Amino acid sequence: MSTHVSAVHKFGGTSLAGVPEFRRVGAILAGLETNPAVAVVSAPAGVTDALHALVQAAEQRDDWPVALASIMARCAGLATALLSGERQAECLAALERDRTDLHDVLKATALIGRAPPEVYALVAGHGELWSARLLAATLAEQGVEADWFDARDALTVVDSELGPTVSWEPTRARFDAAWTPPPAVRVVTGYIARDPHGAPTTLGRNGSDFTASIFAALVDAEEVVIWTDVDGVMSGDPRRIPDVAVIPELSWHEAMELAYFGAKVLHPRTMAPLVAREIPVWIRNTAHPDGLGTRIGEVGEDGGVKGVTTIEGMALLNLEGAGLIGVPGTASRLFESLRGAGISVVLISQGSSEHSICCAVPQADALRARAAVAQAFAAEMRAGQVEGVELVHDCSILAVVGEGMRGLPGVAAKLFGALGRTGVNVRAIAQGASERNISAVIPSDDADRALRAVHAAFYLSPQAVSIGVVGPGGVGAHLLDQLAGEIPRLAAESRLDLRVRAIAASRRMVLAPRAVALDSWREALAGGVETELDAFTRHVQAEHLPHAVIIDCSGHAAVAARYADWLARGIHIITPSKLAASGPLADWRRLQEVRRAAGVRYLGETTVGAGLPIIQTLRDLRQTGDEIIAIEGILSGTLAFLFNGYDGSRPFSAIVREANELGFTEPDPRDDLSGRDVARKLVILAREMGLEIGLEQVEVESLVPAELRDVSIEDFLSRLAEWDDRMLARLEAARARGRVLRHVARLDGATGRASVGLEEFPADHAFAHARLTDNIIQFVTRRYRDNPLVVQGPGAGPAVTAAGVFADLLRLSSYLGADV
What we know:
With about 800 residues, this protein is α/β, with parallel strands linked by helices. Helices cover about 40% and strands about 20% of the residues. Helix 2 runs parallel beside helix 4. The longest helix has 28 residues, at about 85-110.
């Protein structure tokens, strides 16, 4: 007789919770391409617990008949909805017989006031009987050849220290006697079995998984499929870690490690029959049957870390003392004392000096463990050879698991680097020689934070960046629109995961769990909440994302004042705002100190030349050993536009208003005309050169009439015409000498002298030929003394500046590991 089947499918209680679930399971089994197959089923969700409670109610002489009627009514309701005609009648009649049998057993229990384990097993096992009978009838209703099999007719189990254990010889003999050639689908009851005396028993919690693996071995199945309510084995607990991923493949060893740490994987005893016969098992989702799920079996040692998980409720016990060094048998005595107290040791760690040995034990056993060890080493403690037994409560053990960690450098560095960056203290470390598991004992209060940080380090792309944008005005709006067009391409081509998760304007902000939809960010912002930068900051610095950056396009001093705090928290900063980089010298020094201490980046290429690589060029010159003698040039695209276009045919005030309307000026054009904006740029360049100067040290010629410094912006624009004659006279005087007017900044590398103002230049000078809004910078260096290095290009306009900010973001991403 052939017992071979193509696959064993196991369906848990949540997969059979109600009528829609039964129909979904029926459709999965009806659609199988290979037959015959076995389907092992649990009781409908909640029924086993209800049956256990029913026996307890009978023992206590509570109103158990009502509870029994409720359970039977639920099952009858399923049969009525799923079946029709003769099948429905047969199923309802069988349920009525079961109700009578259960009523008699429970009545006897109530009279005695006590139920032996066999009664609990008998009553609780009915849930699986009902599921098997009902699913087989449902399949037949759909035209599938199906029957059902009572696992108690084959499985013989005995109790042991390891829990219910299969007696394989009698099981095989009973199976051969009871099993017949199966139809397309044979439904088998999970969970229930018999002991060697024939009394009903169970395989314990998760026993249906065990039943599936046992029958897979008995029928020589090609594979086992465990259908459940998740898409597969996850890389972490989705209730605690956002962005968990389905692990496509696990080895048996990886699965056992994760199961030990409480991950939702098969119990090791379930896997044992499969490992012995090399039968792979799949974990798949009943609600998404098209998903591939997770395969557990023999897989190659690749992929690095497969899962991140924790054991909660632990305590750390530490035995320490100079008298332990080099003394044989110390560890043996320690663990023998714990064994004698019946305490399980979860983790062991010992330094090579042998000065201390520590181990993790369950929190509930911590005090007993300390007492047992203290008693074992009482003599050494009295002699001062052992300092004492220290106990650290409220610990968790975090573990990363993966076959591919073996021989792979950098795994431990990534693990402990992630914990260090997130501020989690590690109390003890353990790693087996197999290198399959690295574990760390951490404070329980930090467990969620640690899980998210470590998961992000291993499971998300290293280039996943949480982005917050402050100031979605001119530059900010263009930046967001540019990101909207390029983020999909960068994700596809460079695996760069840029997530704009927060946008803050002066009054409203929007915070998105994953990312703001950038094709409709304006609408999202309009419907956002009141701006609160502390909440904004916390949201951007998400624990489950490895990197965070705030892009400040606001130009507000109150925002710039937060830079030091953001940097200290480990948040990178990108900004076109010159306020912080050119602010008071003491504040700037503190920013640099904080940035270095936190190991983060502060990128402000656009503070000087919009999209031009002026700061980067200066850094390259210095870092390659060149000496900066002087920097001079047109550093304002706005002022370049004004004086390139000013030939006397139009009033100077008209050109200023045009530049303002085109967005080439700051919102208040006086910020440009005063020369103060250029002076800030010069301070930034000086500081990049290593010259610690302040804004007050720059000699600035202002083009803002004194009478107009304090009026409104509109008054300034309308009244500026009163001074057009003065500017015209200056232009004509320069022309008379064959020269042109240009607004220029100068910085002497030797003396640190800095100046900003309007100057005259010959018509053949490079500054006389700058186009439109071009910035043009000359670096006079030891290498480029006779022929200065020139950087020239557009230096004004929100789109150009936004592109420069975007370039800074890509530079940051490259620093973080992106291939861009």
